[in-house]
């Protein structure tokens, strides 16, 4: 995958050149990440090979984003999202078999993405993009309410089997933001009603199939306890306390560590033994790799977090500014996707692992649309 990614980038740069503002901006972000990661490595790192591996792990997504920008047009984007939509229902079948036929649930239930630990990360990305897609189509009167309801039901069904509690939160976010952005009308009331009814049914089903997971969502106090609780081992980091714990256990008031971290790759692990960091071998039991923002803070400090946040905020601003012409539904979809990415920043590690390609594909949509707009302007 990496070789194909680089090969396509070289072809695109050779053919189109660098005369694209969006590409230059993406490359600037990539360079900043490389420099900040190098600053941390120069101060506290232990292995240059691990730094190079960290560059590979991080920069591959920006290369993929540039390739998407060069290769795709809006017709391609429409076709891709139509495929993702159909893939949802294929995953309903796979998830049903994995849960009821093989007894697989939780993080290992990944539908068409397999049954290895962490496979559900792909499902979270797919289900999120499908939710924003059908909601946006409905808001702009491209599909009817029965199709939206069927899609919501399929998404919630999979989320029950895979114990993806975050999907409930995302659906609420999607409905609320869509209702705020779009003009209130009977269709808005209808989709809100459909979402509420399906959420109630899904929660009742979750209470029967997985009462422990339901218990975490039964009250505000239980939800806060869940967010503050470690994923696995006792003493591990949680979604809410990672930065304070990192400061307490590792950085200990060091300004350079807080600003630049330990360097790219210096806290990571790999299937290749030589690329396993000493830091991970000693402290991996804290499970900091489960959360993107925790891993980023460890390796690149405040500077790294700032760069990533500015990147996604920049994509959001570009989305709001772009007119999207006859593709208005993709503007709403892109806004919703970026908001979800901010949640993924804290929720899990998928922005840096392989499902990150799916999230970068979502980031490519407003860039592709703005490219089309500029091309039309130039032609005129």
Descriptors:
transmembrane helix; single chain; 73% helix; mainly alpha; transmembrane; 380 residues
Low-confidence stretches: 375-380
Shape: globular
- Mean pLDDT score, rounded? 89
Largest sheet: none
Rg estimate, integer Å: 21 Å
Structural class: mainly alpha
Helix content: over 70%
Could you give the order of the helices and strands? HHHHHHHHHHHHHHHH
Number of domains: 1
Helical run tally: 16
Distance between the termini: 38 Å
Number of beta-strand segments: 0
Q: What fraction strand?
A: under 5%
Transmembrane segments: 23-44, 50-71, 83-100, 120-140, 152-182, 188-209, 290-312, 332-351
Keywords: Membrane, Transmembrane, Transmembrane helix
Please provide a brief summary of the model.
With 380 residues, this protein is an all-alpha fold. Helix content is 73%, strand content 0%.
Structure overview:
This protein has 380 residues and is mostly helical. The chain has one domain (2-379). Helix content is 73%, strand content 0%. It has 16 helices and no strands. It has helices at residues 2-16, 21-44, 48-71, 74-101, 120-139, 145-161, 166-181, 186-209, 211-216, 220-228, 242-251, 255-260, 278-283, 292-321, 328-347, 356-379. α5 (120-139) packs parallel to α16 (356-379) and α7 packs antiparallel against α15 (328-347).
């Amino acid at each position: 995958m990496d070789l194909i990614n680089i090969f396509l980038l070289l072809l695109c740069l050779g053919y189109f050149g660098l005369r694209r503002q969006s590409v230059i901006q993406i490359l600037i972000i990539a360079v900043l990440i490389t420099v900040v990661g190098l600053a941390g490595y120069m101060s506290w790192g232990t292995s240059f090979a691990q730094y190079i591996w960290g560059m590979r792990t991080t920069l591959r997504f920006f290369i993929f984003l540039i390739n998407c920008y060069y290769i795709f047009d809006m017709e391609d984007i429409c076709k891709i999202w139509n495929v993702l939509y159909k893939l949802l229902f294929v995953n309903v079948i796979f998830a049903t078999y994995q849960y009821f036929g093989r007894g697989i649930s939780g993080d290992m239930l990944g539908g068409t993405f397999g049954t290895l630990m962490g496979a559900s990360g792909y499902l979270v990305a797919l289900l999120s993009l499908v939710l924003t897609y059908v909601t946006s189509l409905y808001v702009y009167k491209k599909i009817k309410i029965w199709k939206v309801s069927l899609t919501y039901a399929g998404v919630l069904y999979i989320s029950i089997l895979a114990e993806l509690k975050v999907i409930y939160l995302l659906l609420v976010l999607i409905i609320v933001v869509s209702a705020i952005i779009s003009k209130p009308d009977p269709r808005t009331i209808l989709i809100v009603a459909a979402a509420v009814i399906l959420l109630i049914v899904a929660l009742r089903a979750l209470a029967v199939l997985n009462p422990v997971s339901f218990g975490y969502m039964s009250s505000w106090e239980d939800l806060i306890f869940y967010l503050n609780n470690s994923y696995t081992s006792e003493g591990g980091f949680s979604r809410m306390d990672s930065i304070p714990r990192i400061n307490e256990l590792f950085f200990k008031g060091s300004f350079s560590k807080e600003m630049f971290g330990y360097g790219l790759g210096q806290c990571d692990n790999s299937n290749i033994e030589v690329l396993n960091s000493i830091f991970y071998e000693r402290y991996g039991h804290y499970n900091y790799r489960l959360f993107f923002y925790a891993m980023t803070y460890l390796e690149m400090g405040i500077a790294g977090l700032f760069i990533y946040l500015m990147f996604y905020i920049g994509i959001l601003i570009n989305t709001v500014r772009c007119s999207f012409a006859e593709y208005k539904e993709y503007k709403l979809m892109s806004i919703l996707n970026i908001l979800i990415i901010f949640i993924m920043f804290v929720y899990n590690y998928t922005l840096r692992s392989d499902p990150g390609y799916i999230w970068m594909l979502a980031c490519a949509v407003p860039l592709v649309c703005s490219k089309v707009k500029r091309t039309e302007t130039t032609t005129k």
